[in-house]
Amino acid sequence: MILCCVNEVNAQSITIDGDAGGKRFDGIGAVSGGGATSVLLKDYPAPQRNQILDLLFKPDFGASLSTLLVEVPGDGNSTQGSEPSHMHFREDENYSRGYEWLLMSEAKKRNPSITIDANGWSCPKWIGNGNFWSQDMCNYYVKWIEGLKNVYGIDLNAIGCRNERGVNLDFVKMLRTTLNKSGLSKVKIHAFDNWNSNKFDWCKTMLTDSVLRASVDVLSAHTMSEIPTPPSVIKLSERLNKPIWNTEEHVYKKGFDCEISLVASFNRNFIISGATKIVNWYLVGSTYGIEPFSNKPPMMIARQPWSGNYHIRKVLWGYAHYGQFTRVGWQYLKGACDTLVGGGSYVTLKSPGNDYSIIAETKNAKKNQTLNFTIKGGLPNSTLCVWRSNIKEQFIRLQNITPVNSHFQITLEPESIYSISTLRGQQKGSFTEIPTSQHFPFPYYDNFESYKNAGNYGYLPHYTADISGVFELAERPDHKGKCLHQVIKAGAQSWAPGWIPYTIIGDSSWGDYEVSADVYPSKRGWAGVMGRVSATGTGYGCKPSGYYCSFSADGICSLFLSHENGKNKMGKLLATTKIPLDSTKKWHQLMLRFSGTTISCLVDGKLVLSTVDSTFAKGMAGLISGSKDMQNNDAYFDNLLINKLNGKTPDITVFSKDIRPIYKNGQ
């Protein structure tokens, strides 16, 4: 890098005018949700969970996100899995379910200035009698926003209408009216969060519809790096003084290519599409590895709460190049945000005072390129810090630049990221002694008695990941202790195609083992256990690849092979039988046993089914429930045991003493 104050031949000249004005910067961030992406984060020992959260949200430390978008949970699968609603039914309200409350609270604790945005993917079946675009859904949003404020002391800044499900102009008007009547007029509405080529076609209606114009605060859409905002929409947003936000960008790449592509996307989202807030999907990879999109999008991988191990992806430092050098409420300076002649792009952002930062990337540049800057409009001749990332090293501080007579020069290397700023205090945050990776504990046994107050744990046990439906900690129907209860009887209005309710747990490398649970199916339904689960769908659809054994209240026991690409909804029936039952006995132990290609089902310790199948040799365990009419899918489960073949019953699995409840005084 060459630093001087003399113009070079063929160098690109850029003027930064502090008086030029420009559009308000509304932040950069990431999404928690759109799938149960943060589910295992809640189970981390407190020291490691705090480290992860520091790396995500702490100012001037790691990614230092300035905005966060969370899913308003809705009981339905929305890519990786499902998250529990605060209102399973109309009369229900509970603001301790799930883990998004935890994430928002911890983000605010670290950075009180972070803005919080939200959107719905799925919703409970009862909403609008099956119609998402309804007054019920407006009320549902309001209850969630009020719960966030009343229980956690957090004001929501903005909310969408529905993620990637088209346009409904009547709904956004109804939502605005409902928010206003509830004293929530300051909550901005962004619309309509779609990704296709016609995503902004609805906007022109605002010119003739004054109610619509008053209802929508922000024009929002997804994946502007793939389908940019049309120039006509940018002009319309400026005419109506309504900003453009990218509420879900996608950068699915590996290593440093992901990092520099992210920064290039952030820059070009503004330069080309006029987006003043860009949120990338998704935040942290706290899902099991067999779930879709488990590795490439997130900035961190944190899927081993039992060991405490996690690791940072290089892309986190791409966020840091923005997060540690900008603040919400700054402005993009006119005339100082553009592409670079030699390849790449740059943006310049200025504080309400006289601080400013330049963020540049040289993705696809072939050689060094020199930039000559002139600063004016009251901007100081202050010394500038310089931070760089390239394929060899990420987020490294270089030699300062001191402007001379309001001029400075910098030579940028190809395939690099630079942040140049008057701000100070940046650091490449890190922690020593991150625990080593370990396999999931085996054997594993949980009777759910350690969860004295289910609400303190978000009603979710450690290590399970609900893919469809919701498996909550509950009292046993016979009042003899704790258990798991699959509570969604008739499904949800899922963003992605739903399937039979199931939750997964364990290690994808398991081959020969037994998984069992005491089950209590509904009168017209069945409960089951799963094994050798190797996939949970494609991300749009959640039918698993693996085996499951079902057991109904009338004694029918069936063994199924399920494949994510299979045409049969229930899966392929491998074997079935009906066994006589004692009508006074409600609970039965159901076991699925794998030994090579032999797969067996046992009920109360007795072998009832056995078959041979070689489709899946390894995979995780799980619990599942369903019914013939798909209206009675609730079931209870207790004494979950994953063990070696014919193994003795082990002691209850002991969790780390540092794993603590995520809420205090949960409802």
TrEMBL record:
Residues 25-324 form the Glycosyl hydrolase family 59 catalytic domain. GO terms for biological process: carbohydrate metabolic process; galactosylceramide catabolic process. GO terms for cellular component: lysosome; membrane. SUPFAM superfamilies: (Trans)glycosidases (SSF51445), Concanavalin A-like lectins/glucanases (SSF49899). The keyword Zinc-finger does not apply. Pfam families: Glyco_hydro_59, Glyco_hydro_59_C. Gene3D superfamilies: Aldolase class I, Exo-inulinase, domain 1, Glycosidases. Residues 468-644 form the Glycosyl hydrolase family 59 C-terminal lectin domain. Its EC number is 3.2.1.46. It is an enzyme of class 3 (hydrolase). Keywords: Lipid degradation, Lipid metabolism, Sphingolipid metabolism. InterPro entries: Aldolase_TIM, ConA-like_dom_sf, GH, GH59_C, GH59_cat, Glyco_hydro_59. GO terms for molecular function: galactosylceramidase activity. The keyword Phosphoprotein does not apply. Belongs to the glycosyl hydrolase 59 family. This is galactosylceramidase. It comes from Arachidicoccus soli.
